[in-house]
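TASK: fixed-backbone design
INPUT:
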């Protein structure tokens, strides 16, 4: 029995019924990764170690973990002890961390098996997975089309059925947007819900780890394990972690869903609009009520984000200097020349662009005009959300303005064209709110994502609303035809 396209819940049942062993499960994941290598969704594989771990698992022993023996893929910005971690950048192409990120360690302690590290936009900077040093990731639904970014490799690996789930990170939409383009479910939790320790930072006040999976139920399973306070991360929340599975099946009758007036959906493709209206009808049949709401400052989200994120990236990436670890240029004249050549050779164009923008925004004479002003607008956006959530439970938007697009068709002449792909997702990162993308149909045979944004720490409600939708539709069951990737 093939494991391809199976959910964590389905694989758990197969393991418990002894229809398959953890070793057989892991071996088949590796076989699928090799079979569909043209997707280019993996940077580094972990075959020998993962097979050894899987072979040592004894399912007869008492272990209530739903992840015991389940193969997962990790985005390649989570440090993994002894396993290469590159951030899909030349500058870290030979980096082997001496420790494992907390989020990954928790998953592995629960019995999951890391089969490999997934390709991504370099240092998580991109919306299409076209900035990776290791080449573009293909969308499993259509060869030559982007899977979304920056967690494109993770999304593609799940959509192709190589693994049932994978880790991702979301700084401005980097879990939700690839989930939408690849027809799977992706959750960005509340900022601080999951420890960032061991994640290679892009923008520290925006980055958040989260799961990509086939269903909202699987995302809840992963979130249960990944969440929790970490003494190594001062931004992780020191609060009790609820059981995110416990409320999945609660009825949503009377739920108030907000539709944001400032997002003019008439500018979108007519078919994308149609999918959105159809999803509204699904929720109305289930008893939800729709309310028009206003977020007056949300139109400033994109420029606010692209002032804050590059500034923080400029600071975070200053450590990659060719001295202590990573790529080191040869034939240099002095220390300054070493810095310049190592960084010039090691970073790609998009990373250099954002470092330069961020350094400018933080420079004397411009800090108040750009970074400080952006942080003030960020507070206004957060205040707008606080006000709106006094009258509604959930907000609903499209995840992305478009479906997946061809390699090189956007952003080649004007990078802002790609930045606008995160139009609907950025605001929840600025406000630190949880949000989820679920598949809700197709346009021109490519998946379309529906985004639900929840109030602070209300992942339980988000997952419930997403799960009920998936219990009453079959969009999440759609599978790409993988014939072109054999």
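OUTPUT:
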């Amino acid at each position: 029995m093939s494991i391809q396209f199976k959910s964590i819940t389905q694989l758990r049942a197969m393991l418990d019924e002894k229809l398959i062993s953890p070793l057989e499960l892991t071996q088949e994941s590796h076989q699928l990764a090799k079979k569909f290598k043209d997707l280019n969704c993996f940077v580094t594989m972990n075959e020998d170690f993962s097979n050894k771990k899987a072979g040592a698992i004894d399912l007869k022993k008492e272990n209530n973990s739903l992840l015991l023996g389940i193969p997962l893929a990790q985005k390649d910005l989570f440090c993994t002890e002894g396993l290469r971690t590159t951030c899909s950048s030349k500058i870290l192409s030979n980096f082997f961390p001496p420790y494992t990120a907390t989020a990954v360690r928790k998953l592995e302690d629960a019995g999951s098996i890391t089969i490999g590290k997934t390709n991504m936009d370099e240092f998580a900077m991109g919306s299409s997975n076209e900035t990776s040093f290791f080449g573009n990731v293909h969308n499993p639904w259509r060869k030559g089309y982007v899977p979304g970014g920056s967690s494109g490799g993770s999304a593609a690996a799940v959509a192709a059925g190589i693994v049932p789930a994978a880790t991702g990170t979301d700084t401005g939409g980097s879990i939700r947007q690839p989930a939408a383009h690849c027809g799977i479910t992706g959750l960005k939790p509340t900022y601080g819900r999951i420890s960032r320790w061991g994640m290679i930072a892009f923008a520290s006040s925006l980055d958040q780890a989260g799961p990509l999976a086939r269903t909202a139920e699987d995302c809840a399973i992963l979130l249960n394990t990944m969440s929790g306070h970490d003494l190594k991360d001062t931004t992780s929340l020191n609060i009790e972690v609820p059981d995110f599975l416990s409320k999945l099946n609660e009825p949503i009758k009377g739920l108030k869903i907000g539709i944001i007036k400032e997002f003019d959906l008439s500018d979108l493709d007519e078919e994308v609009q149609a999918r959105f209206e159809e999803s509204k009808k699904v929720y109305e049949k289930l008893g939800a009520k729709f309310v028009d709401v206003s977020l007056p400052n949300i139109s400033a989200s994109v420029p606010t984000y692209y002032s804050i994120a590059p500034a923080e990236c400029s600071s975070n990436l200053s450590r990659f200097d060719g001295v202590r670890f990573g790529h080191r240029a040869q034939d240099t004249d002095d220390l300054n020349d070493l810095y310049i050549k190592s960084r010039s050779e090691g970073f790609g164009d998009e990373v250099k662009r954002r470092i330069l923008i961020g350094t400018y925004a933080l420079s004397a004479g411009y800090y108040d005009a750009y970074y400080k002003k952006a942080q003030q607008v960020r507070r206004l956006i957060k205040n707008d959300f606080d006000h709106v959530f006094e009258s509604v439970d959930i907000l609903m938007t499209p995840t992305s303005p478009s479906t997946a697009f061809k390699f090189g068709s956007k952003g080649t002449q004007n990078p802002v064209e790609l930045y606008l792909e995160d139009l609907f997702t950025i605001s929840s990162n600025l406000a630190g709110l949880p949000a989820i993308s679920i598949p809700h149909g197709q346009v021109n045979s490519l998946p379309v994502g529906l985004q639900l944004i929840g109030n602070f720490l209300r992942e339980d409600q988000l997952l419930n609303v997403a799960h009920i939708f998936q219990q009453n539709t079959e969009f999440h069951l759609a599978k790409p035809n993988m014939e072109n990737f054999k």
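COMMENT: The longest helix spans residues 368-388.
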